[in-house]
Amino acid sequence: MSDPLVSANGIDVAYGDLQVLWDVSVEITDEDRVVALVGPNGAGKTTLLKALSGLRPLAGGSIELFGADAAALRPDQIVERGFVHVPEARNLFTEMTVEENLEMGAYTKRAEQAATMAEVFELFPVLDERRTQRAGTLSGGEQQMLAIGRGLMAKPDVLALDELSVGLAPQFVDRVFEKVAAISEDITVLLTEQHVHEALELADRGYVLENGRIVAEDDADALLESDRVQDAYLSG
Amino acid sequence: TGGGGDDGLTIGALQPLSGNFAPWGSVHQAGLEFAVDEVNDEGFLDQELTVESTDTESDAGGAATAFRRFVEEEDAVAITGPVSSDVGVRTAQLAEELEVPLMLHMAGTHRLHTKQSRHTFRLGSLPAPMDLQPQAELIEERDYQTVGAIVADYEWGRTVEDQIDEWFPDGIDLSVDVAPRGESNFRSYLRDMPEDLDLIVATGHPPGSISIHTQARELGLGHDLTTGAGLPPGVLYEALGGAAETFAHLHTPDVYGDAFADVAGRFAEDRGEQFTTHHGYGYIAGRVFAEAIDEADSTDPSDIASVVLESSHDTILAEPLQYNEWGEIDGVRSMLSTVHEGGPDFHSDGAFHLEQEYQSSLMNASMVEPLVPEER
Amino acid sequence: MSRHPIAALRHRLGRFDDIALGVVVLAIVPQLVVGTGMTYQARLLTIALTFAIFTLGLNVVFGHTDQLFLFVGALAGVGAYTTALLADAVGVSPWLVLPVGALLAGAIGMLVSYVSARRGMTVIVIAILTLSLQLAIMELFGGARDLTRGSTGFLFSGLEVTFLTETLGFSRYVAHYYVLLAVLAVLLVGYRLAMTSKYGLAFKAIRQDEVAAESVGIDVVKYKTIAGFAAAAIIGLAGPLYAHGEGWIEPSMFSFNTVDVIVLIMLVVGGMRTTWGPVVGAGAIVYLEEQLHVLGQWRMTALGLLLMVLFLYFRSGIVPKVTAALDGDGRSVSLTDVTDRFG
Amino acid sequence: MLEVSGVTKSFGGLVAVDDVSFSIGDAEIVGLIGPNGAGKTTLFNTITGVDPPSDGSVTFDGASIAGRKPNKICRRGVVRTFQIVRTFDESTVLENVRTGAVFGSSRDRSTDEATEHAREAIEFVGLGAEAETPASELTMAQRKHVELARALACDPELLLLDEIGSGLTPTEIEELTDTIERIRDERGISVFWIEHVVDAIMGTTDRLLVLNEGSLIAEGEPAAIREDERVLEAYLGGAV
Amino acid sequence: MEVVTLAEIAVDAIARGLLFALLGAGITLVFGLGDVLNLSLGAFAIVAAVIGATVVSTVPVPIAALAALAGVAALGLAIDRVLLSPVYRTDGEERILLGIFVTLGLAIAIDGVLFAEFSLRYAFPLDVASRTIGGVTVLGSTMVVIVVASIALAGLFLFLRRTTLGKATRTVFQDETGALLCGINPRRLRSLIFVLSVVMAGTAGLLWSIQAPVGAGSAFDLTIYGIIVSIVGGVRNIEGTAVAGVGLGLLMTYANYFIGAYQAMIVLFGFVVVVLIARPEEIA
Ligand SMILES: Nc1ncnc2c1ncn2[C@@H]1O[C@H](COP(=O)(O)OP(=O)(O)OP(=O)(O)O)[C@@H](O)[C@H]1O
Ligand SMILES: Nc1ncnc2c1ncn2[C@@H]1O[C@H](COP(=O)(O)OP(=O)(O)OP(=O)(O)O)[C@@H](O)[C@H]1O
Ligand SMILES: [Mg+2]
Ligand SMILES: [Mg+2]
After folding, report:
1. Ligand 2, atom 29, residue with closest C-alpha
2. Most buried of C92, C291, E5, E83, CB within 10 angstroms?
């Protein structure tokens, strides 16, 4: 039996009166390496990640992280447990340098800070070059790399990447996907992606979210072949 | 509280019960209430006299609104209480407009009256010339040679600065500094004062006069006396402790006379508290209004004002209280006293008593120029 | 889509029906609450209208363009001192030099807005900048004693309308109330016209995103400068009227605590970016302040506590709340804010 | 119509755009691609006046626009959208677009005309059903379309789009490219378009510019760019 | 005027300047790091002085000083929890404005209590002998002010620059969600910073009352001095605040001296206006 790392059980989430997630259940176990979450715009992918990382309260259902109830935890407590979310909006510290941003990423893992930072710089050499530049002045793609790097600094057990490749140049998309594959040796990755095809190729399992509900869940290969996904996302 | 009028006569008290002048307000209020209680006990008025008081927060606009409210909503026949020149000027304005007598507590600016004023009466704080003359006399009497003064940078302080020039004897070594009104650290001004200072004049900086005195002592200037504003003696005693013995403040109630001792004795007996100069101002206001109502045989505020203006009242001042044609105080003597530990004769339980440093000669209203309003 | 000219005119006039109604109501008020020969209520009413005008000015510049002017008092003072001193020096009626005071205040507001827009200042920088100006100008009023008679101040009058006092026989305060009401009515109409025109549209865009506003052709500096000028001129115009109502000019009438704090509260309580918010806010706060006197020396504490509660839990303001409630009932909303419906 | 010549922009020591020259003609769709940080957005900023160039000239229809304010440039007919969307979120879609119609165009319109014009632009991008919805309630893709409609309402001659397709699904991208082609075909507007979605941009543009480390390294038809050695190395990598 | 007197005045001015710097630090902390311009800062300084002056008659001086600081810290914590929590729940411009409004209300309320119940001026008595160094007499109280204020500022500086906790405070200001996702608890940091800032103000108030009595009437002035120093020093920058404090202390004292009181105030505010116009980007 595999141990569940993350499990959402029938959760509902709403923005004010507007409910966006309906009875969503997701489970990630330590046997998963990469799990992809796909679906059209506005399906609720981001919202689901926010619910998992504690940024949105639940209107119903429950969430367990690493075997313990997590519905009432604050985001910072969830980071401490080992679930780290790299948000779609990036949320960098724009007035601080690249290096300081990374340093803050390691807030809960200060002891390993230097070593992790070296790994991140190896992954994204451009960040090393821009070490002392203010994060707010980085280009769009550079910011995306910094956001991922900062997430890695927390040495998570599960890393949730929202819109991993947005704004990245093609050669970086490939590089980043390779890196994610490499990361997933040690870390379980949950990602949402517009490059549905690539994402499902990288992932071993996937969920399809539409209109706030899970409409399909399967091995990635199977999803990739399924009509539902073929028609909706891969027609181009 | 609630409206008076129907079955009684109301005196409105515009008291600074909070804010910078709060120490004045509460004491004045106590003296006023005591006077009214006595009047009611004596029963020489047909109707019960009551006091309606409000907190002006030392703000002129607020005092103006309250003034109107007292007169129009509470039917007050007379008003008292204002402290500070700014409040004094604005309320004096209203006293004339609404034709209701106003007895000021502490408002010293000389630009208070015009020759047309008929309803505004000065009491506690004397106009600048009358403030400076006793000090000038003191300098001559004691033959002080070196005098330093710090004045505040606003109307009152600048007036004092002018009056110093006018009244102080020629030939003394005099240095005058101007400091901001809100200043409380005077060390740099004091460091620049001449050596061998005899006297520091701080009456031109009322909010800072206590600080000036303590800081001068800390710097070891070794002067004889500091003269300061007419603060309630209780405040001086609290703030200065032993240093109060060399801080001479101005007051007009004759605390050394029998009349004062009488009232103070009764007050102590009744209220169990020490009666001071500023209780005295409230007491005088209550008494004089009551007597004027009696004498006028009318509750019309204007009639009451006429009586105050024209008659003379024996009070606890050194001289009878009287006013000139437009309400400037006339024929007054003021005293410079220091505060010492131990209660006075009339109230031995008290914490402090006053000792007289100097008593001025008789001062007449003619030494104060009234305000000449412009032609429009 | 062409419309019949009369229908179009109706439509235009219809935009002012709430203003007409409101002004009529305000015109009746003194007849109801001010007894003959009474000055206390009359003075409160004039204070409320005066502050409603100040608040309207702040609404334009702060509500609509996010420039937090914390020198409303100083601008009013500039208007008042300029008018009074100039009238005195030249020897003419203050009415004649009133525009000079308003224009001078307007020029100061314009300059501040221009510089702050050019320098890309955020709301907080503008707030601190204008607060510093407020304090400096107050020092000037108090310090230039030879000109202003320092903190004691001087008598001021001369902004009366003899038709009201002599022909109609109103008391000085009631007459002054109608003068203020006339000014307010003109300003409300002007405000409505401006906010339903392209000015309102530009303000709304600028407030939300300056960069985007510029990218679609809006001259941000120009519109902010216009707002700064208009607001400051309105405040500078009301300043002498304020002084006339008090019969007096002195610096403390224009201090941060006496004017700015109160005006800000009135704006928030009444409702920012609404036509009637400033008027309702001014009325409510003047009334409330007067009621608080029963608390004696605890009035100020109570005021502070009340403010915090209002700001924290009621910051959308009375007018928007009432409008929403009426809308919710599906009833007509004659007092609603037209800018919210048209743009 | 747009002539960019020798434009350079540096931030402190960093040269973000380095001596770039090119031009864009009438009714043309030109793509701008390049690695992250190549200077694409910065180049847009120099053209639209958000960040004036440190050096070089930009002329539009023969008149210099370098260093002019963004609002002036907009009214001249050069209008942009933003990489990170900047809609007026408290306003409805209609108000957003109307703002463009009123201020963005050199033409004077009455209020009613401006509203009509705005509605037309909203229909054009397919947001007709959302006209009265506040922008804050829309999805990212919809908000990008609001920006597009707002820009169109400014009557541009040249439209600059910064990664308008990022974050969209392939189906949505297809709709978007359609719209962009219609903008050129039906309205005769030129489009200058930054995008990392290679297939979309290759399939739609007439011409591509490739920026790398601030310099223009290639320019030509999509088919040629695909083959270009330098572009393959700097940008496309193994992706194609 | 003699050189010695000028030097003595300079020492006094530096002491005053360090007090300005403490107040400036109080503003800088909460505004620069938390987005709230605390208009009630001066009130905390006065509260500390009032507590200190009141309890000093019954307990030894150091205990009275600690009690005063503990008092403002507790008050600060309570206010942070009760009043600022709703402020922090908003964001962006709305938070800035709500911060201004709520602390304005708070300033009025605290001043109101002081006005009503503690309307005197309060002094914290401290007997330290004066010392003459090279002909320049330095008062005991001045020495205490300079030493204590310098230690407080240096400690604050080291905390912010050298400790991760100190650095983490900056993240909260810039992007709260980002901070949360790094495992930082913004709420706790904000409380810490707010308490730290009012303790700085309290220290300033206590030290001020050693030199000259203070009362409720000075509260708003102290806040203004804090804001001015904070701005001139560059709002994000504690070293700048310290330098600006001392600089303005000297400027004000000498301007007062040589050109007169109200002109000095105009010079001061004029200076602020120039700084604001010259470099608004450093402020917000
Ligand atoms: N702050 C918010 N307030 C109200 N509604 C919101 C908010 N954020 C998102 N929504 C709505 O919730 C729904 C789901 O949004 P979400 O961002 O989770 O979708 P998504 O799948 O991540 O989409 P995308 O691919 O565009 O990022 C959408 O309809 C969106 O409009
Ligand atoms: N204000 C600034 N100060 C310093 N450097 C800056 C500034 N603005 C941009 N840069 C740098 O200039 C370079 C170009 O940035 P730009 O945003 O133009 O890139 P881009 O080509 O749009 O990249 P992306 O595709 O990632 O959006 C980047 O390295 C960025 O860090
Ligand atoms: Mg999303
Ligand atoms: Mg870019």
Report:
1. D37
2. E83
Q: Judge if D40 and D134 occupy the same domain.
A: no
Last residue of a domain, one of D131, D155, D179: D155
Please tell me whether residues D177 and D132 are part of one structural domain: no
Cα–Cα dist C133/B155, whole Å: 23
Locate the chain B residue with the closest alpha carbon to C93.
B376
Ligand 1 centroid to residue A13 C-alpha, Å: 11
Q: Supply the range of the domain harboring residue D188.
A: 1-74+156-240
Has residue C191 got a pLDDT over 70? yes
In this structure, the answer to whether residues D125 and D170 fall within a common structural domain is: no
D106-139 per-position pLDDT tens digit: 888 888 899 999 999 999 999 999 999 999 888 8
B102: phi then psi, degrees, rounded to nearest 5: -130, 125
Phi, psi of E124 (to 5 degrees): -105, 105
Nearest CA in chain C to E225: C132
pLDDT band at C12 (very low <50, low <70, confident <90, very high): low
Which contiguous run of DSSP H or E holds residue C108?
helix C94-118
For chain B, list the strands marked E by DSSP.
8-15, 48-55, 76-80, 102-103, 120-121, 146-152, 173-179, 199-201, 225-228, 247-251, 322-323, 329-330, 335-341, 352-359
Rounded Cα–Cα distance for residues D79 and D161 (Å): 9
Q: How confident is the model at residue D229 (pLDDT cuts 50, 70, 90)?
A: confident
Cβ contact (<8 Å) for B191 and E115?
no
- Please identify, among D109, D129, D155, the residue that sits at the C-terminal boundary of a domain: D155
Q: Is C106 helix (H, G, I), strand (E, B) or coil?
A: helix
Q: Are the C-beta atoms of B125 and B148 separated by less than 8 Å? A: no
String of b and e for A39-61 (b: at least 16 CB within 10 Å)?
bbbbbbbbbbbbbbbbbbebeeb
**Smallest Cα–Cα separation from A98: which of A151, A153, A146?**
A146
Q: Which ligand is nearest to the CA of A135?
A: 2
Q: What's the pLDDT at C5?
A: 62
Q: What is the DSSP string of E115-169?
A: HHH--S-B--------EEETTEEE-HHHHHHHHHHHHHHHHHHHHHHH-HHHHHH
Distance from first CA to last CA of chain D, Å, rounded? 32
* Subunit contact C296:B55, Cβ cutoff 8 A: yes
C20 CA to centre of ligand 1 in angstroms: 45
Q: Where are the alpha helices (DSSP H) in D59-197?
A: 70-76, 93-99, 111-124, 140-153, 170-187
Residues D147, D66 contacting (CB under 8 angstroms): no
C–D CB contacts, 8 A cutoff, strictly below: 83
Give the largest CA-CA distance in chain B.
65
pLDDT at E252: 86
Sign of CA dihedral D155, D160, D162, D167: positive
The one-character DSSP state at D104 is I
D182 and D234 fall within a common domain: yes
Contact D35 A169 (CB under 8 A): yes
Angle B284-B154-B102 from CA coordinates, rounded to 5°: 25
If asked whether residues D179 and D237 sit together in one domain, one would say: yes
- Which of C234, C229, C239 is closest to C114 using CA atoms? C229
What gap in Å lies between CA A124 and CA C53, rounded to an integer? 59
Question: How many structural domains compose chain D?
Answer: 2
Query: What's the CATH code of the domain at D44?
Result: 3.40.50.300
Same domain? For D187 and D147 the reply is no
Which atom, in ligand 2's list, is nearest to the CA of D196?
Answer: 25
User: Residue A154's CB: how many other CB atoms inside 10 A?
Assistant: 25
User: Which ligand has an atom closest to residue A162 CA?
Assistant: 3
Asked if residue D55 lies in contact with residue D48, where contact means CB atoms within 8 angstroms, the answer is no
How much is the average pLDDT of E41-47? 96
The interface predicted TM-score (ipTM) is 0.84
Pair D146, D43 in one domain: no
